[in-house]
Amino acid sequence: MAQKITTIFTDIGGVLLTNGWDHVSREIGIEKFKLVAAEINERHHLVYDTFESGNMPLDEYLDYTVFYEPRNFSKEDFINYMYSCSQPYHEMLDLMRYYKKQYGVKIIALSNEGREVNEHRINAFKLNEFIDCFVSSCYVHLRKPDEAIFKLAIDIVQTPLEHCIYIDDRSVLVQVAARYGLNGIVHENYETTKQQLDALICH
């Protein structure tokens, strides 16, 4: 019989919520605000790692990527659009709340996100009501797939690895985590993830 899982490490974007600020929302924003895609994307790729690692505030990120020339919309307008891109996956949120309440499972967010977007998502969707710890790139200044962020998360939790599971919608990150002893589930949809977690938690 498999070891019972007592700690879940989970990505947020693509698992619990839609992605916070990804290429899809960026492309829609470019069209919505009538921006030049090549310019915005080039600037984004030059500074995004710094922003997501918590070493650049959102205001400065936008100065470099959008407001490097006068616009006919405000920075507040653009930030509100960015925040609106975050939407919940209600079934997955309810599932995590269930495991927390019914089985006392520790739930740790392990995600790449800029500080302001991350904090909007935590507050808007009340993630801190069931997530015990946020190992977010903007707080720890490390990003997945860096080995160090996985090691840090494991060290913080102090749960034997055989009692841990990691959930991510990107298979390569599940593969990276496995190299450091953290087994994972590639999240494809609610039904298959629930089935796998139930087998590991509810027995």
Q: Biggest sheet, strands in spatial order?
A: 3-2-1-4-5
Report the CATH superfamily of the largest domain: HAD superfamily/HAD-like
The strand count comes to: 5
- The end-to-end span amounts to 9 Å
Computed CA radius of gyration, to the nearest angstrom: 18 Å
Overall domain count: 2
Global geometry: elongated
Main β-sheet: number of strands, strand sense, barrel status?
A: 5 strands, parallel
Features:
single chain, 203 residues, alpha/beta, Rossmann fold, DNA polymerase, domain 1, five-stranded parallel beta sheet, 5 strands
Explained architecture:
There is one protein chain. This protein has 203 residues and is α/β, with parallel strands linked by helices. It has 2 domains: 128 residues, 3-Layer(aba) Sandwich (Rossmann fold), CATH 3.40.50.1000; 62 residues, DNA polymerase, domain 1 (Orthogonal Bundle), CATH 1.10.150. The protein contains 10 helices and 5 strands, in the order E-H-H-H-H-H-E-H-E-H-H-E-H-E-H. Helix 2 packs antiparallel against helix 3. The protein is elongated, with a radius of gyration of 18 Å. The N and C termini lie close together (9 Å). The model has no long low-confidence stretch (mean pLDDT 96).
